[in-house]
Amino acid sequence: MSSDSPLQISRWLLTALGTRMFLYHENLVPRNSAVLVVSNHRSFMDAPILMAAVNRPIRFACHHYMDQVPVMREIVKLLGCFPLDSLEHRQQSFFRQASQLLQSPQMIGVFPEGGEPMVQATHPQKTGEFHRGFAHLALRAPIQNLAVLPVAIASCEESNGAGVPLKLLSLIDPSEPLFDQNGWHPLVIYHRVNVFIGRPHWVKTSERQHYRGKDAKTVVADLTNYCHAEIDQLLAQGCY
């Protein structure tokens, strides 16, 4: 598979589904540097949408179960995703793989809301709590000239269906508590979507110096809150 294949597949998917995408603030996308893309997440289409928006392949961390299901496993590989290990090794797996890819340098994509908005039906312009793993990665990775880029995906027209039973996914990955419930995994398909590029945050040497001891929690929270607030502000623009 060529390095551009995920981008080509993403464009093909949007065309096949008839999705109309409108991009705003494209000039804010960093060029010629390692980039950590941070975005809200509601649909399997989010990764292809983001690749088409920034016009570059993005390597996304994806859930462990996606590497266990035949067909789905092949799809995530075609999109260039790197599946995480099972729950007990997930954090170490994420840091190891993402750091190596950023040093390439490649563009890494993270959905800090985790899997919950994929399993629970959510409002297109609302976000949940952000996990802080991406901020730890940005501050820990030994990479100069690293940009953290918040991006908001605002769905304007979509259809909502049922994917697969959650109990079936629980059989595949019993370590995931989100699957231990009745109902179906939602299937959200965007028909018209706005993508807003946020203001990149360039990781400073001073932030890395404070990423130790009692100051570490503060600098991690600041970066997490910056991305969350930026995405919420962009989502508030909605559709027009």
From TrEMBL:
Alphabetized InterPro entries for the sequence:
Plipid/glycerol_acylTrfase (IPR002123)
**Residue ranges of the Phospholipid/glycerol acyltransferase domain?**
35-156
Spell out the Pfam families in the cross-references. Answer: Acyltransferase
Protein name per its UniProtKB record? 1-acyl-sn-glycerol-3-phosphate acyltransferase
Keyword terms:
Acyltransferase, Transferase
Q: Which SMART domains match?
A: PlsC
Source domain of life: Bacteria
Gene Ontology MF, one: acyltransferase activity
